[in-house]
Amino acid sequence: MKKHWKTYLFAILIPLAAGGLSALLTRGSMDIYKDIVSPPLAPPSWLFPVVWTLLYILMGVSSARVYLSDRNKSAREHGLLSYGVSLFMNFLWSVIFFRFRMFLLGALWLGVMVFFILRTFYYYRKADPLSAKLQIPYILWSSFALYLNIGIYLLNR
């Protein structure tokens, strides 16, 4: 890792920048939690940026590991492509959900995003097994977010 620190830094900055830009675009819209009925197990709003920051760091580290891996070039390329799609979808989901309050579209969008995260996991496992394990918190949190999004849609129609 020491000789590849620039790769790791860049790979971590990519998801952090995507998350930061998404937060900037949805600024002021996150007060939505005061106006809606939330499903059971909904965490406090302050927890989301903390968890997402940690997830973005894990996503960056795992993508750097895959990028630097010399195992299974095809899996590496497919995994990084799936990761890029999931990150793009992650970025737009916040805008769809918070800015436009399109809860049904948000849930559908998030379902497709989870598919791409699982696809990333599948290919990362072939390219670098530890990178795949680093995706597990992202899979779990995004699946939980899908549950919350569906619950919010159903409780606020």
Structure write-up:
The structure is a single chain. The protein is mostly helical. The protein has one domain (2-155): Ferritin (Up-down Bundle), CATH 1.20.1260.100. 77% of the residues lie in helices and 0% in strands. It contains 6 helices and no strands. The chain has helices at 5-25, 47-68, 73-99, 103-127, 129-134, 136-155. The longest helix is centred in the middle third of the chain and has 27 residues, at 73-99. The radius of gyration is 16 Å and the shape is elongated. The model has no long low-confidence stretch (mean pLDDT 95).
What is the distance, rounded to the nearest whole angstrom, between the alpha carbons of the first and last residues?
49 Å
Overall shape: it is: elongated
Largest sheet: none
Q: Write the H/E string, N to C.
A: HHHHHH
Number of domains: 1
CATH secondary-structure class:
Mainly Alpha
Poorly predicted ranges: none
Total beta strand runs: 0
Structural class: mainly alpha
What is the C-alpha radius of gyration, as a whole number of Å? 16 Å
Tally of DSSP helical segments:
6
